[in-house]
Design brief:
This protein has 400 residues and is α/β, with parallel strands linked by helices. It is 42% helix and 18% strand. It is built from 17 helices and 14 strands. The protein has a six-stranded mixed sheet, sandwiched between helices.
């Protein structure tokens, strides 16, 4: 795919994307788009963003050669892009830094956010604490129960965490409540969406802030190996870490891009989140994208052991890249992700987030097709501290 330059001026990636929102929000979305387009060429904004990335977030993150994991499989060399080493423990702070600086320029006094695994909520609450801005985070009741450490962190940071008890009590429902809040309070409130989803310009804006992952990866692998990788693998829920590492490589056609969704209990059940594998186009939370829905167009209830992947939609750019066959999308079950997490911890001394474990688990599916002179980069989107209780509850002796 050469000269890739999307979205278009209407916010579309092919047929996907757009703005499907109440009229109340249209002026705010235009204001956000205009402000962002001005700021991304503003030296003062760029300098402040880069300074925060270096001195507060800790970038650049390392590209770590996974020596023992490579020896274990005996095939392609495996590298891990260490977004788990970002301040707050995940790639989510890349976007939160950018959006909080935009909110300041817009003069907004209040920030709202939604969160699933809690990492985006923690990142947003962190930036609000640093800049002294009121923060409200919507989170599904089920996710609050399985992500208690991150809920406590958000409260320590001064955020108000509002439990969402509707629907499946997960990320989808938290997002719905955040959108309702924004419609009511749009004059003084900026909504920091945490993934490459929602109405235009959010998928573009979040992608641009997260593309720092892919830019660094390209520089680092060229420095270490003197060439680009053969494969890049990343987990996909909404898809922000995946598009962040994929985007700078889209025009490099020899680099194979692989997204890994959550198959939950299996694709033959109704307990999964494999939107791109089994979904169909539909309108959801302000965008046209692939969506898990029933024959009447009702959004399906979904499941993943990973709260961060437990989402029935996906970013519209991923939908376009799937249709163009530029990215291949596959899925991994809860059990396969758990095994990969324990294996990585044992061999590399790195406990990955459950989301990232889905990407690592895909090695089992394809690495035997690779050769020793090939290179795989896996985006380690977050660290597993937040998932420790889930790991403890699901540990089996045969994982040793």
């Amino acid at each position: 795919m050469k000269n890739y330059n999307l979205p278009d001026t209407t916010g579309k990636f092919g047929i996907y994307g757009g703005r499907f929102v109440p009229e109340t929000l249209i002026p705010a979305l235009y204001e956000l788009e205009t402000t962002y387009n001005d700021l991304k060429n503003d030296p003062d904004f760029i300098n402040e963003y880069n300074q925060l990335q270096r001195e507060y977030n800790g970038r650049p993150t390392p590209l770590t050669y996974a020596d023992r994991l490579t020896k274990y499989y005996g095939k392609a060399k495996i590298y891990l892009k260490r977004e788990d080493l970002c301040h707050t423990g995940a790639h989510k702070l890349n976007n939160a830094i950018g959006q909080i600086l935009i909110a300041k320029r817009l003069g907004k006094q209040r920030i709202i956010a939604e969160t699933g695994a809690g990492q985006h909520g923690v990142a947003t609450a962190t930036m609000c604490a640093k800049f002294g801005i009121k923060c409200v985070v919507y989170m599904g009741e089920l996710d609050i129960e399985r992500q208690k450490p991150n809920v406590f962190r958000m409260k320590l940071l001064g955020a108000e965490v509002i439990p969402v008890t509707s629907g499946s009590k997960t990320l989808k429902d938290a997002t719905n409540e955040a959108i309702r809040d924004w419609v009511t309070n749009v004059r003084d409130t900026h909504y920091i969406i945490g993934s490459v989803v929602g109405p235009h310009p959010y998928p573009m804006l979040v992608r641009d802030f997260q593309s720092i992952i892919g830019k660094e990866t390209k520089e680092q692998i060229l420095s270490i190996e003197k060439r680009l990788p053969d494969y890049i693998v990343a987990c996909v829920g909404g898809g922000s870490n995946a598009i962040g590492i994929f985007y700078p490589f889209i025009n490099d056609e020899n680099v194979k891009l692989i997204g890994v969704e959550a198959a939950g209990y299996g694709l033959n059940t109704n307990k999964h989140c494999a939107t791109l594998s089994l979904g169909s186009p539909g309108i959801f939370q302000g965008m046209l994208t692939y969506l898990l829905q029933d024959e009447n167009g009702q959004v399906s209830e979904v499941h993943s052991i990973s709260a961060g992947l437990d989402y029935p939609g996906v970013g519209p750019e991923h939908s376009f890249l799937k249709d163009q066959s530029r990215v291949q999308y596959f899925s991994i079950t809860d059990e396969e992700a758990l095994k990969a997490a324990y294996l990585t911890t044992k061999l590399e001394g790195i406990l990955p987030a459950l989301e990232s474990a889905h990407a690592i688990a895909y090695l089992e599916k394809f690495i035997q097709q690779t050769s020793k002179d090939e290179i795989i980069v896996i985006n380690l989107s977050g660290r597993g501290d937040k998932d420790l209780s889930t790991y403890m509850e699901n540990f089996k002796e045969d994982y040793k």
